Amino acid sequence: MLLYNVTLILDDAAAEEWLQWMQETHIPEVMATGMFVSNRLLKVLDSPNEGVTYCAQYVAETLENYNEYQSTFAPELQERLNSKFKNRFVAYRTLMEFVPPTS
After folding, report:
1. 47 pLDDT tier (thresholds 50, 70, 90)
2. What torsion do the CA atoms of 25, 44, 2, 18 make, to the nearest 10 degrees?
3. pLDDT tens-digit profile of 48-101?
């Protein structure tokens, strides 16, 4: 299982509009690709950055699903984000692997 994390630092003025768009439009579109099994949206409370910081997280069962998302769906979905919120955010994307607990 893999966790695809997108951390976004938003201008204060864009944060409310972005949050509504994420919840109503973007996250449902990402999940509709079928490449992820779950998602969550978190607000960072102790960010050292100016603005408002959120993490959108998506869980993929396989690396193949993640790669398919990146090659087939991500370019268009990221372009929609870039167009709608141009110059009002910075995004960092990371891919992480779940580490099973030791027995």
Report:
1. confident
2. 10
3. 878 899 999 999 999 999 999 999 999 999 999 999 999 999 999 999 999 989
Both tokens of residue 16?
């409310």
CATH T-level fold of 2-97: Alpha-Beta Plaits (3.30.70)
Question: What's the gap between Cα 102 and its chain centre?
Answer: 29
* pTM of the entire predicted model: 0.92
Query: Hey, what are 75's tokens?
Result: 């370019």
> Structural domain boundaries of the chain?
2-97
Q: What is the pLDDT of residue 15?
A: 94
User: How many whole angstroms from its chain centre is CA 22?
Assistant: 9
The Cβ of residue 49 has, within 10 Å, a number of other Cβ atoms equal to 11
